[in-house]
Every structure is written in C-alpha cells, then in structure tokens.
Amino acid sequence: MAPRKDSWRHNEEVILCQAWITVGGDGVVGIEQTSDLLWNRIAEEYNAHKPVDCVTRTASSCKARWKKINPACMKWRQALNKVETFQRRSGENMEDELMNVKSTYYNMEGKDFVFEHCWVYLKNTEKFGHVPTMENINHSVRTSIDLDDSGTPTSEEGATSSRKARPKGQKAQKLAKKKGSQQDAGDLRKQMQQFQEQCEREYQQRQQQFEEGQLIEQRAEDACTMMVDPSIFTPRKRIYWERKQQQIIDKETGNSSIPEQSQDPTPPEGDDTSLATYDPLHETSWM
C-alpha cells in the first residue's frame, strides 16, 4: 500500500521544527505578524529546505503537524522537569535518568514520546529549553513569539511587579539577529545535511540486507534444482532440468554453454511425468 500523501517522515518533521525556530522563534518579526502570515513564512522556509523526494507542504499542513509536535514536546519538557527536580540517586547514570523521564511521560500521557528527533533541535530554544520553577511559573515574561497548540501566536500582559528582566527592544534584537543570522543558518544547514546523510546510510544498509536475503533464497532454489535427477523424467522434461542445472553451473563458473534462445523458461507442457514421482535415492551430486 502506498503511503498517505500527507504522512510526515522524521526528516520532514525535523525540517519543520527548524523552520519554526527560524521564523516562529524570531522575536524581531514573530510578534508583529498574524497567524496566517506566520505559517505562510514557515511553510516557505520548510519548502525551501525540504528533501527533494518529499512533497511540498502548505501552511495549513505545517500548522496541523505542529499541533501534534508542540504539545508532545511541552509534555516531554514537563516530564524532564519532574525528574530533574529530584537528585539523581547513587549508582544511576544518564541512561537510567532517561528511562525515568520516558516512564514519567508515559504515566502523564498514556503513550510513548515519539518526537525525540524533533526534541534534539527544540530543546535549545527559549520556549522548550526554559525550566520553570514554582515561583515564576505563573509570571513568566515572553521575549519571543509563543505558539499555542493551535499554532496561533499568543500574547499576555504579565504583572510588571514580577518581572525580573525587561525584553530586548526591536533595535537590539535586529542587531543581534544581523550578527548571528549567518552563523545560525550555517549551523541549521549542517545539522540538516548530517541528518539526511544518516537517513541515506540507513537506507543503503536496508537495501544491502534485502539483496543479501534475495541471494540466499536464490542459492537455496539452485541447490534444490541441482538435487533433481533428470533421468527419472520423460525426454522433454529431462532436457528442461538438464538445461536449468547447466545454467546454474555456468553461473557459478562464469561461463555460458547454452544459447540464450534455447533456454526454456518453464517446464514443457503436455508431459504427464511430474516431480511427484521424484525418488530421493536418485539424487546426484553436482559439487
């Protein structure tokens, strides 16, 4: 069955997250644009860097997929926070801690976290990288655009008395963006290239395993053919089996002594003798 046209592969979801980081996480332009304009820009960024063999995505398609990724990653951050709240017990390593986070997420959501490939990039952003505490969880200050579960930019007027830092102004953010945009773009493209190379290596490994499996099946079929004793058949079928066995021998030795036009693709019809009369005592050795 052919895959659904709107299905998303891991590398596509990674590029979508990178497009969101580039466009949606931009404090200079993010806050000043509507939801439609924002997702149009994210779709343009995604389509500019999508893999060649992937379909072009619309703004609504990108927005719908983000509605799956965003809440799952927010819950994953909450699970991380819960685990990090407690000190690591003696003897536990990073792998044990990761298993604790996965178990916590499962207990919260009733299912496994399936966006680890996206988290690799989102965990370093301000939205997903922030570790809230009980003191400031209700009084956080946004310094860049925030997208809710529906993909719509949100804005809040927090209590000024609880603010510990003032957001950077547009001029300061534009200056910082101008200095770091080239480096950030280069880093994102490098990460995308490394991910695509990894996908290509995995595909080559699967293709090699498939070809090796086919070779094993062909050798097993050839071995069964060579065990047949053509002398037990009628003349027409005897010629067929002798030719098949000779083809196998020629393939093993790299020679061909049978003209291509004389090679029978199927056993001759109209012959009453069949393999049901084959006697194992008449097996011949061909090695």
Structure description:
β1 (146-147) and β2 (153-154) form a beta hairpin. The chain is mostly helical. The protein is elongated. Mean pLDDT is 74; it is low at 133-144, 155-165 and 272-287. It contains 8 helices and 2 strands, in the order ααααααββαα.
Topology:
Blueprint: H1 10-24, H2 35-49, H3 59-85, H4 94-109, H5 116-122, H6 126-129, E1 146-147, E2 153-154, H7 170-226, H8 235-253
Helix pairs in contact: 1-2, 1-5, 1-7, 2-3, 3-4
Q: What strand line-up does the widest sheet have?
A: 1-2
Shape: elongated
How much helix is in the residues?
A: 55-70%
Query: Tally of extended strands?
Result: 2
Task: Output the radius of gyration.
Answer: 32 Å
Head-to-tail CA distance between termini: 43 Å
Strand content: under 5%
Low-confidence stretches: 133-144, 155-165, 272-287
Give the topology string: H per helix, E per strand. Answer: HHHHHHEEHH
Characterize the biggest β-sheet. Answer: 2 strands, antiparallel
Number of helices: 8
Based on secondary structure, the structural category is mainly alpha
Output mean pLDDT. 74
Overview features:
287 residues, two-stranded antiparallel ribbon, 8 helices, 2 strands
